[in-house]
Specification:
Layout: E1 36-37, E2 41-42, E3 45-51, E4 63-72, E5 75-79, E6 87-90, H1 103-109, E7 116-122, E8 140-151, H2 153-164, H3 167-183, E9 191-192, E10 198-203, E11 215-224, E12 230-233, E13 241-244, H4 252-257, E14 266-271, E15 292-302
Antiparallel strand pairs: 1-2, 2-3, 3-7, 4-5, 4-6, 4-8, 7-8, 9-10, 10-14, 11-12, 11-13, 11-15, 14-15
Length: 303
């Protein structure tokens, strides 16, 4: 199903000014962030804590949900609130981050859920050649951040193991629906589109509908209709799959099928070979002219 899979986390525009050498009030903070003055500077960036709780800050490898707006003067460059949901990001290891550290990354590392903070980045300190087209050296970028949630690595590992344990049952459910499909038992539930795509709604979600260019997060199980052989799923690795709808990153049957789903929905897609891997299939797991069935659960949508 997947044509490509690339997870890239980019947390911001970059600069580095050098750290303050005043005493560190948080001795347990990672060494790379230790030299900072509470409420004044961190990793060379000036910042202001507007709301500060005493909760747990995200560790490396934690999944965070947060809102962020990026403001220059009176202009809002972007704001995650336009998508009406927090942005999700995996806090990467330092070795995977650029130098200097992104300002929003270092901000998130000293926040806890419910905190709000603004961190300031002078554009004049961005390395030569990286100045964005909309900015000038005199500008100051304000990253206004509200940390909504933190899922630490230990909790994430537990969740991954629970998802992996679902692999066999999800494949079996998909196979059961294929058997009903072949016998005609789904005739009164089956919806067929002009393209030849067929689907059955198992659960109707309560969120918005997925649209072209929306970035979606799904779990799925894929099975060959003819042989009932499972060939792909997200449960094996315990990780949901993320991709933009309608941009050819997945097979045509998926790009179309997702637009009939709203957030929280679960469906079985029956995809003819013309909307799948074509007349030739895709060796070694997809034979020629293979009809495919997918259980798909739409977990989240970002505009």
């Amino acid at each position: 199903m997947r044509k490509s899979f690339l997870v890239i986390a980019i947390l911001g525009v970059f600069c580095f000014l050098g750290c303050n050498d005043k005493p560190n009030p948080r001795p347990n903070l990672d060494p790379i962030l230790k030299n900072f003055v509470e409420g004044e500077s961190i990793a060379g960036y000036r910042y202001e804590h507007h709301v500060k709780n005493n909760g747990e800050s995200p560790e490396v490898g934690a999944m965070v949900g947060y809102h962020q707006s990026m403001v220059v003067g009176d202009s809002v460059i972007f704001d995650t609130r336009t998508a009406k949901r927090p942005k999700e990001a995996l806090m990467p290891a330092y070795a995977k981050l650029p130098t200097p550290l992104p300002p929003d990354y270092v901000a998130l590392r000293i926040m806890s859920p419910g905190d709000s903070l603004t961190i300031f980045q002078p554009l004049k300190d961005i390395p030569t050649g990286k100045l964005p087209a909309w900015g000038s050296p005199e500008d100051i970028i304000e990253y206004r951040i509200k940390l909504v949630s933190v899922k630490q690595p230990a909790a994430m590992e537990k969740e991954v193991e629970a998802i992996k344990a679902m692999e066999a049952s999800q494949d079996k459910m998909t196979i059961d629906y294929i058997s009903k499909y072949k016998s005609g038992a789904l005739a009164d539930q089956l919806i067929e589109t002009k393209s030849g795509l067929k689907y059955v709604v198992l659960k109707k979600g309560e969120g918005p509908n997925a649209r072209e260019k929306d970035y979606v997060k799904v779990h799925y199980s894929g099975v060959l209709v003819e042989s009932l052989q499972p060939f792909d799923n997200t449960y094996r690795d315990g990780q949901a799959y993320r991709f933009p709808v309608g941009l050819g990153r997945v097979i045509k049957g998926w790009d179309e099928g997702l637009t009939y789903m709203n957030e929280g929905a679960a469906v079985i897609l029956f995809i003819p070979y013309t909307l799948g891997y074509g007349a030739d299939g895709k060796a070694p797991s997809i034979p020629a002219k293979a009809e495919l069935a997918f259980y798909v659960e739409l977990l989240g949508i970002n505009n």
